[in-house]
Amino acid sequence: MRLRKSARGLIRLGELGEDRLLEQLLPHLPRGKGVVAGAGEDSAVVNPPVGGDFLVLKTDCIIEGVHFLHGVNPHDIGWKAMMRPLSDFAATSAVPQFALITLITSAQTEVEWVKQLYRGLRRAARRFKVSIVGGETSSTPGPTAISASVVGFVEKDRWVTRSGGKDGDDLFVTGRLGAAMTRKHLQFVPRIAESRWLTKNFSIHAMMDLSDGLGVDLPRLARASKVGFKIEMENLPLNRGVKIDNAISEGEDYELLFAISPRDRDLLEREWQKKFPKLPLTRIGRLNRKSKIKDQKLPRGYVHFQQPG
Questions:
Q1: Is 145 in contact with 104 (CB distance < 8 Å)?
Q2: How far apart (Å, rounded) are the C-alpha atoms in residues 229 and 251?
């Protein structure tokens, strides 16, 4: 496989961007018969050799200078490193069970810093009864990176992907959007409990977590579902002092975005209020046939390998 060339020679990652890079890479990955949902979804889902639930696998990493800044409390860094893949489990309505942690850092890193990092990892794992069963450490002259790989399960009648959205579906988001980078991105709690409740009580057609911003993640869900979308900007649930464009483009919210039949809207809103009275649930728009409406242009969120434009 060869990447296309630009007028200046071989194209660079900064010119291509994450989504277009994945479009060129993912179709060429080997995929066995047991793979139910593979690369391109929030988490991989595989069919075990003999019956039972689907296995769910996810790996994620955070890098100094990209996902956290030098000088940040290492306990908070450990928390975020574990919670990022668990947010993808929430998007799949899966239950995490085991984790492997890889730490790549400088030989000059203080031992106490590493101990505090692992305290954060352990605290986050205990929150969702995840066992940290191993991992790896490696030295680097570059910035520190922490990778967490998580394995768990989801029942065959409850797993959700990005690709099941339908024409006419209502779009909902949990919580509030915007200003996550001021603190929330280091202390968020994945919506696993909310996701599990949703799939137990309703038919959720498509779902994902908002990590890169609504302006990037919603078009991803729409493309995967082969539909268009319309957002009612005035209905977006914003954190105090946040402007709409910033809420759409900043990312790091780690809330759920999901599509559900409008027939279930009233019941969903009533029952959600009873179950999660302190957590807002907001209808923000709907999915449409592409032939009916063009994809609404949204301010872009975070895209790996691309500088903000």
A1: yes
A2: 19
Task: Reply yes or no on domain 170-288 having CATH 3.30.420.40.
Answer: no
Average pLDDT estimate for 224-244: 94
What confidence tens digit (pLDDT) does each residue in 135-161 have?
888 888 989 999 999 999 999 999 999
User: What 8-state DSSP symbol labels residue 52?
Assistant: S
Q: Are strands 228-231 and 281-288 parallel, antiparallel or unpaired?
A: antiparallel
Q: How far is CA 10 from the centre of its chain?
A: 31
The dotted CATH code for 31-154 is: 3.30.1330.10
Q: Alpha-carbon distance 163 to 36, whole Å?
A: 12
User: What residue ranges do the domains of the chain occupy?
Assistant: 1-30, 31-154, 170-288
Count H helices, E strands: the chain?
A: 8, 13
Q: The pTM is what?
A: 0.83
Give residues with Cβ within 8 angstroms of 194, minimum separation 6: 90, 174, 256, 276, 279
| Structure token pair of residue 141 | 């002259």
pLDDT digits (tens, 9 = 90+) for 265-283: 999 999 999 999 999 999 9
Residues, the chain, total?
Answer: 309
Dihedral (CA of 171, 176, 180, 186) sign: negative
Show the tokens assigned to 104.
């790549």
pLDDT 10s digits, 31-40: 667 778 776 7
Token output for 200: 């137990």
Cα distance between the two ends of the chain: 29
45: pLDDT confidence band, cut at 50, 70 and 90? confident
Q: What's the alpha-carbon Rg for the chain, to the nearest Å?
A: 20
Tell me the average pLDDT across 60-89.
94
Q: Is 196 left (phi over 0), alpha (psi -120 to 50) or beta?
A: alpha
